[in-house]
Amino acid sequence: MKACGYYPGCSLAGGGVELDLSIREVSKAAGVDLREIEDWNCCGATAAHCLNHDLAVALPYRVLSLAEEQGLAEVLAPCAACFSRLKGTNLRLARSAELAGRVRAVVGRPYGGGVKIVNVNEFCGRLAAGGLKDKLSKPLGLKVAGYYGCLLSRGEGIVEGEDPENPSAMDAVIRAAGCEPVSWNFSTECCGGGFSMSKTEAVVELSAAVLADARAAGADLVVTGCPMCHSNLDMRQRSMGSEGRGMPVLYLSELLGLACGLKPEALGLNRHFTDAGPIASPLSVRGERRPSECGASRNTSTPGGR
Amino acid sequence: MSAHALTNRESLLAARIREETGVKVAECYQCGKCTAGCPMARWMDISPNQIMRNLQTGDEADENRLLSCQALWHCAGCLTCTQRCPKGLDPAAVMDVLREAARRRGTVPASARKVLAFHEAFLKTVEDFGRMNEWPLVARYKLATGDLFADVLLAPEMLLKGKLPIVPHAIRGREEVRRIFRESRKKEKR
Amino acid sequence: MTFEPRITAFVCNWCTYAGADLTGTSRLSYAPNIRIVKLPCTGRIDPLFVLKAFEGGADAVLISGCHPGDCHYASGNYHARRRWSLFRKLLAFTGIDENRVFFSWVSAAEGQKFANLVNKVTEQVRAAGPFGERNLARRRL
Amino acid sequence: MRRFPKYVNAGRALMARIGVFICHCGENIGRTVDCPAAAAEAAKLPGVVLSLDYKYMCSDPGQQMINKAIAEKLLTGAVVAACSPRMHERTFRSAAAQAGLNPYLLEMANVREHCSWVHSERAAATAKANDLIRVMVEKVRRNKALFPIRVPVEPTALVVGGGIAGIQAALDIAAGGGKVVLVERSPSIGGHMARLSETFPTLDCSQCILTPRMVEAASHPDIRLMTYSEVEAVEGFVGSFEVTVRRKARYVDPEKCTGCGDCFNKCPLKKIPSEFDAGLGSRRAIYVPFPQAVPNKPVIDAANCTMLTKGKCGLCAKVCARGAIDYKDQDRLEKVKAGAVVLAAGFELWDHSAYGEYGGGRLKDVIDGFAFERLASASGPTGGEIRRPSDGSEPKTVVFIQCCGSRDDKKGKGYCSKICCMYTAKHAMLYRHKVHDGRAVVFYMDVRAAGKGYEEFVRRAIEADGAEYVRGRVSRVYRRRDGKLVVKGADTLVGRPMTVEADLVVLADAMVPRRGAEKLAQLFGVGCDTDGFYSEAHPKLRPVETAAAGVFLAGACQAPKDIPDSVAQASAAAAKALGLFAKPELEREPVIARVNKNLCVHCRACINACPYGAAKDFEIKDRAGKLLRVVAEVNEGLCQGCGTCAAVCRSNSVDLDGFSDEQVCAQIAALE
Question: What structural domains and CATH numbers belong to chain B?
Fold first, then answer.
């Protein structure tokens, strides 16, 4: 893989900026040229498919059409929601010619259906097995809970090659980063999704349960590929009880970047609400500390209410 | 609307669901697995399996109650129900159609106002800029709900961590995006 | 004189023949244009029987057997159906309008269906006219 | 293109002397069809020497008229134009036979059901009757004398499967005077019933009621047990099947073995999971599956025995005082003759590892119904105490999940497995009897308790024994770090999700056909439904027979069944087999296909098309035994006379007696 289309999506310009930074960094390290779709628009996210079906297809349609026009056969959509909307639109268009015709009229652009959408798990998996293979020089030695949430585990025809009840795409990447994927129960349980502002109590409760289970499974940190899950799990920790607090939540691409020895700041690690500092320095740098000790130090260095 | 109803009790709403999602609500045998796995069921006034049941009766009163319930607005779209439905139905997609219908008929309950306001603020922002931008979104949402102080404490830190771009980004193809909104809305008003 | 079509029917012994019996015992009436040739199973129908019927002056051929899955001989009607899809091409080749060959399933319990079927086929063939002038000339009636 | 002879068999046609007998059926035919005119018309047909009409042809005088004509006019064929042959063909054919005419030279023209009753216009109806009579005269001119096929019957039944259904069928057949060969795949008969703790709805001890039957079957002089054996090949047909049975190597000579048990007590390989105990207990490499096994003689598990895999050990041979151990034992093939077959292949439980949301088979404390039976059984691995497989502790909350894999189109089976509601109620009841302070929570969709005493039994589990029934399907089961199983269910009647923290979860897995059942069905020419259950000949009226003549079904291989249903069907199958044995010979209609071996080009179209496997390859050899060529041949015993082979034959070498190409073409030509 030498080049790949890139659709950052709105979150990655804002709340999910770490995902954008780390994706760009690891791609650079792997020698993959990310070509951002020019003048892309929002995919409509949850709001569009809650309120208007046509809109929920038409907005991603414009993005896909632009990508095709710009000659991008494959597009990475790191945000799980964007991935789901774009690939879902591809599927729906392929299934119904009637819909394809209608949406084409709404958007006023052609789209032949030839753009393949890749998610962050697949992308990181490919980098770990490809361009980064020789660069993963800093085994981190951590226990990692891979959190798939909803949109990277479920959705027929969208998430491919994955057991929806027991997904495993992240495992290879976690191992490539010199870490151990922990077996835990909440890897596909919902964090509350888009209710962060409108139904905050639900998000806090569900996200806390996810973090608590990761902690019980002995995880040092949680990794995810979804900016929405990330903001729920990371930013809402201060509203949680002790079971949820102080668990670093990283993007999968950040973990991969750290294992390549990339600078934590460049990957965006300093931008998380929950301090990821203690795990940012690889084991080799930290000396002979074992992961469990590093977990202990993490607890002390993360004050509950900053 | 399809002339041929699946059952003689199939309501117009159920027929619309069948056309838009392929889900035949009559096939639901009320096992309750959707409710059992739903992470948001605790915050719902009508459980997911009851939502399906209310679509089966073909009774107008049931349908009205359904379209004015808050459960529709508390669905996170996590697809757990769809993933595990032993009949291969897609309750999550049914929820989408019901939300659309509720909004069209103006039956969204007051308790779901915040959720709807958020979605609407989100889409308005996208319509204006072509993308979602945090500041305009939050501003619109707070104006709509009067919920001025919630999460205010998060903002400074987000700013500090570079998570709140100060200048909203507007794309060049804004006019194209607005056209998409205009055209899609035609169907909404239908 | 109006044209009265001649229809040759090949039916299986277990379903359609019995169904036609039921039409009789129920005293339902249908057009007298049909002549039934009984076979053990629709699987027995050689495509050439059909050609032979046209050669002999039939204006249409009706083939009817057990419903799929109900064949007395487990799968004979499936063979008949499969053969029929190939036979269409042969018909086209021989210049016989495929709309003159009717295929149906009538069970032993479907007396009314058999009567309706015969009436429908008769009407359609009557509307379509005789199969060929030559045949008309050879007609005994 | 094939050519049909237009004036076939002119010689025979010329010599034909055919009588036509037209019945008025009172007014039934005569009202619409002008019978005297039809008789006059028929008299003109070539080969017709006599044409009569009469008020009631089926009456005694009518039949005598036919008899007399046959005798006086030396008829070579007869056509009776009357009602449907389904009504009176048998009557008229026996009349003809009495008069010395081969009954298959008489045909009926259906001028009542197909003519007078369905048409009202006299001229048109008479014209049609003339046509129908003419068609039949043309057919009869070409009819051949046929003779019913007689097949000798071997009064032995082969019963495949030694579970309760097979045992019951064997006992009933033997009691009725037949002989039985009972073939069982595993080392002992008894089947799943031997594994059950107690049975619903009476809570009888399963082994207490079963083992006497097992012993009776083993000791009956007319029942031969072939355990540790499998059907390998089947030849022949109803009345005379020849079945090849593979007798798997036991490595223990049953003649010498006394069943003392010294060998398996000494075997050093102690940790092999016991199939009988659903993996909860263990067995040795030389073993009897359970203490009450019949025959109570051990076998060596060749895959695990180190003597057989590596040539090391040999301890069992050393301790066997009788010298019964034979490490060189090999599979043997044995042929068995049988007139009838009873398939009682049984069932197994669906593998719930497809249910990732219930742990995908990875959670030790999520078990299936059989495992619970073994836990509850006094002879089981825990001596009848309910224990968690993971840590041996007594579970204080047990969740039972019904319809696991049943009624699930997506991941499991669409059908209801019928018995789970009952055994789950029994499990909940047994658990509450054994663990008084324990909770038994049952998640169900519908309780299907249709059976004598069944509904009362379920109510007792709820009302007297305190089982908590919750209506809803479980979405997920996972194991928390502290070992608790978190069960996320729903109470759909209240309309809310419901979480139960359990110590043990029992899944009521769907009943599915045994592995290998489909292959067995193919051997016997029996069909399977889409789920692999054996297809009965008719779902309502022939629930015991199959499409293969002489092969009958018993038990859960046909559909999910409980014990009484299996036993009832087994007795019915036994009655069917005994019915076959009641006569020394079978008589069948002679409508069968024949291959002209001189014309056959061996394209195998008939062999592929035959639904009964009656068309087969036939090797033509010269006297020296050298293969000359291969052609097709039809086995008379298997052929049912559908004629599909005749229709697909490309070389016009297959024909069907009674419905030959020549006959049918003559009928068609007569319609000109």
Answer: 3-107 (1.10.1060.10), 111-189 (no CATH)
Chosen from D363, D478, D482, D501 to mutate, greatest number of chain A CBs within 10 A: D478
Query: Considering its fold, how many domains does chain D have in total?
Result: 4
So what CATH class is A3-120? Answer: mainly alpha
Asked if D312 and D430 sit in the same domain, the reply is no
Structural domain span for residue D314: 249-330
Query: A96: which residues sit within 8 A by CB, 6+ positions away?
Result: none
d(CA A201, CA A5): 37
Q: In 3D, which of D65, D69, D32, D22 has the Cα closest to residue D50? A: D69
Q: What is the ipTM of this complex?
A: 0.80
d(CA D142, CA C140): 24
Say how many domains are in chain C: 1
What region does D622 belong to: left with phi over 0, alpha with psi -120 to 50, or beta?
Answer: beta
pLDDT digits (tens, 9 = 90+) for B53-112: 999 998 899 999 999 999 999 999 999 999 999 999 999 999 999 998 998 899 999 888
Picking from A166, A185, A217, the nearest residue to D360 by CB comes out as: A166
Is there a single domain that holds both residue D14 and residue D92?
yes
CB proximity under 8 Å: B 61-100 to A:
74, 76-80, 82-83, 96-97, 99-100
Q: Tokens for D31?
A: 């009202």
In a domain, C96, yes or no: yes
D284 and D371 in a common domain = no
Q: The domain spanning residue D601 has which CATH number? A: 3.30.70.20
B85 contact D CB<8A? yes
Tokens 């034992």 belong to D329
D323 with D412, same domain: the answer is no
Interacting residues of B59 by C-beta distance below 8 A, sequence separation 6+: none
Q: Which tokens go with D621?
A: 């050899």
pLDDT tens-place string over residues D117-165: 999 999 999 999 999 999 999 999 999 999 988 889 999 999 999 999 9
Which residue range forms the structural domain that includes residue C115? 7-140
Q: Where are the domains of chain A?
A: 3-120, 138-298
Cβ contact (<8 Å) for C44 and D609?
A: no
Q: Which fold has domain A138-298?
A: Rossmann fold (3.40.50)
Mutation pick from D473, D488, D505 vs chain B, by most beta carbons of B within 10 Å, is: D473
